[in-house]
Known about the structure:
This protein is mainly alpha-helical.
Amino acid sequence: MAMGRPPKSSVLKAAEGNRAKRGRGRLKEDVRGRGLPVPPTNLTRAELGLWRSIVAALPPALLSGADVSVLERMVVAWARCRTIEKTLKLEGLIVATPQGRIRNPLVSILKDAHTEMHRCGSELGLSPAARARLPGGNEPDTDDIMDALLGMDGSLEATWWEKPQ
C-alpha cells in the first residue's frame, strides 16, 4: 500500500509561507499535547540518561506528555541496540549450531531495533531531515559560525569536539 508524505504541522506551514501562491484558506491549529514528558519508572539508568538528553536537545515546547510512548520506545530500542552490539562482539556474526554455521539470530533483532529507533527518531525530530522540517530548525543560534563552533566566548572550553587526551 503506497503512502504519501506525512502531514506537516500548521507551524511549519506558516513558517514556509505560501510558495505556490495557491489559496490554502486559514491554517488549522495543530492539536497540542499537555504537560511535559515524564520518564517512566521502568527505565534503566542508561535509558534515563538518553531520555534526558533527547528532551534537552529538542526545542522547548516541542514535546508534551503525549510523546511519552514514542520517547520510551526510542530509548528502549537504543538500549537494546547497545546490548546486542556488545553480545555480537563476543559471539560474532556467525554462530555454530547442530545444523551447521548460521547467521547469528541477534542480527535480525538488531535490525528491528535500528528500524524502531529510526522511526521514533524521525517522529521526534532527531534526524537531520526531521530537524530541517522543524520551524526555526535551520537557523543558527549565532550569526558568526566560529562562535557557534568554538563557543560563544571564543574559548576552546565549550567546543563541540572533545580534546585529545
